[in-house]
């Protein structure tokens, strides 16, 4: 299993709902952006894979909300990568508010890659992350 990598972000006003907190669906965007940055930092080009007929797809998302971010909050998304099974990989992610370091969300995002025929597999481009 890999070590966590960290991505620092800040809440934008329009991401908040009428209650003044980040809308629950927005957290999915934060997590996705962090996954793409994680892959990029490990020399995996998400766009190039797609161009070559290899699509990385989410097949399950488990999110545990533990607190809320509000407008202007700075936070860190921690991401690590692991093998889940022969054909599945896992992104383990957490969101922590900067300042008090409170964990506001824990997530396990299960994915796989599919080829042009829609068949799942683990591409060679990801194997170095699974060692």
Give an overview of the whole structure.
The chain has 131 residues and is of the alpha+beta class. It has one domain: Thiol Ester Dehydrase, Chain A, CATH 3.10.129.10. Helices cover 21% and strands 38% of the residues. The protein has 3 helices and 6 strands; from the N terminus they run βααβββββα. Strands 1, 2, 3, 4, 5 and 6 form a 6-stranded antiparallel sheet that branches.
Question: What's a quick, concise take on this entry?
Answer:
With 131 residues, this protein is an alpha+beta fold. The chain has helices spanning 24-41, 46-51, 124-127, and strands at 5-10, 55-65, 74-83, 89-97, 103-114, 120-121.
Summary keywords:
alpha+beta, 131 residues, 38% strand, elongated, six-stranded antiparallel sheet, Thiol Ester Dehydrase, Chain A
Note the gap between the termini.
Answer: 7 Å
What is the overall number of helices? 3
The CATH homologous superfamily name equals Hotdog Thioesterase
Question: Main beta sheet, described?
Answer: 6 strands, antiparallel
Order of helices and strands: EHHEEEEEH
């Amino acid at each position: 299993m890999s070590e966590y990598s960290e991505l620092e972000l800040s809440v934008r006003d329009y991401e908040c709902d009428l209650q003044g907190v980040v809308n629950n669906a927005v957290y999915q965007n934060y997590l996705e952006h962090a996954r793409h940055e994680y892959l990029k930092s490990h020399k995996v080009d998400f766009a190039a894979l797609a161009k070559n007929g290899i699509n990385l797809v989410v097949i399950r998302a488990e999110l545990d909300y533990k607190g809320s971010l509000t407008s202007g909050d700075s936070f860190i998304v921690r991401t690590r990568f692991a093998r889940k099974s022969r054909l599945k990989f896992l992104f383990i992610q957490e969101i922590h508010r900067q300042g008090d370091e409170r964990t506001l969300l824990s997530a396990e995002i299960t994915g796989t890659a599919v080829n042009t025929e829609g068949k799942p597999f683990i591409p060679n481009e990801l194997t170095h992350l699974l060692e």
